[in-house]
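Sample pair:
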Amino acid sequence: MKTPPLFGNPGFYKSLFVIAVPIMLQNFISSLVNMLDTVMIGRLGTVEIAAVGLGNQIFFLYNLILFGICSGGAIFTAQFWGKGDIQGIRKNMGFCVTLTIAVAAVYTLGAVFIPDKLIGIYSKDALVIEAGAAYLRVLAPSFIPFGVTLVLVLTLRSVEKVRLAIAATLVALSMNAVLNYLFIFGAGPIPAMGVRGAALATVVSRYTEMFIVVVASYVRRYPPAGSFRELFAFNSAYALRFLKIALPVIFNETLWSLGVTTQNLIFARTHTEAIAAFNITNTVSQLTWVIFIGLGNGVAVLIGKKIGEGKEQDARDYASRITRFAPLLSVAVALVLIPLSRLLPVVFNVGPGVLSAAYMMFLVLGCMYPFRAFNMSMVVGICRAGGDTVFCVFYDIALMWLVALPMGALASFVFHAPVWLIYLCIMVEEPVKMLLGLWRLKSGKWLHNVTEGI
């Protein structure tokens, strides 16, 4: 197959950025507020920042399982959208909501009744476990509204309605930032609640966000906003077809999130300063990584729509362009990311050991950005949009569990390596994954029409 010129189709980039930029802005707002949360908690001390970071790992696991459900659903939604099948979009969203609420119930119960055991998986520091459990128990009521919002927002993305999510996120997370300050440190009649205050602010903001997204979707009569009967019109045959495509995505995201949380476990078991540096690095890097999240999700919508329209060659051209454009852009982004690390002493109240480790981790991360950008485009933007979900499991998971995590564990627990070297061992999978992704892209076997015959 002839490789299309990188900038030979201005219409592609226009369509891509119309979808991707609002997603970038939404994720940037979210990441910025999360960073402000971390900064506020960081003012309390190293134990508190480690505790909230580990408490959020439980939420992270939940988020990634939901993302697996919603990403599987987005494959169907984008292709239904290309076919103009509104009823298909609505029943697909209803099925995703059903699965999401079931998962949310399990996590809510765990956060309420056994938060200390969940935090204890990652850390043996009694003070960190106590603070993390307190945070997680208060956070528990936020799981269900977050899940409902995520399903609807990702469905709206797939039908090219992306602005509502920005407005809802801006309102809800701005509220979260203000409430964080009031509840963490106290003001007037409001007592200082520390980590519990941070969790309470999150709960309030999640319910606010869900209310805005749901009400506005029905007022504006967006395609996913169906009646109860339309949303739950799925039958067992549809459920089986959905699960055949989506289960590998859910399995993928679950194993990937367990892998990321194992990374946290490795750093937390190294020492408290290591997990604090890891949390700081991730929090700040999210401000730039939102660009590639937006590109991946944006191109997934375009590719899925082209497949639904029966224009498979256009879909292949889009895939070729994004896998060259994203790594090229990542070089410029990395050059911005690394200088940002020099601002850490201004915003984080942590010791010189944490700052030194974080500086070095930023250098490693910057070098790996082009490989990560390619892999993000392949997993989220191409393979999933093309229904190639079984390959994604191997592509996204195998090297993490067989190479990166064992190397990181050996570096920490056996060789007692510096924190930055442990981080490098964990990131070493990215260049190898890129080679595997290039092979799959060239083969063309990633493209499948999953809605055909439904």
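The chain has one domain: 10-443.
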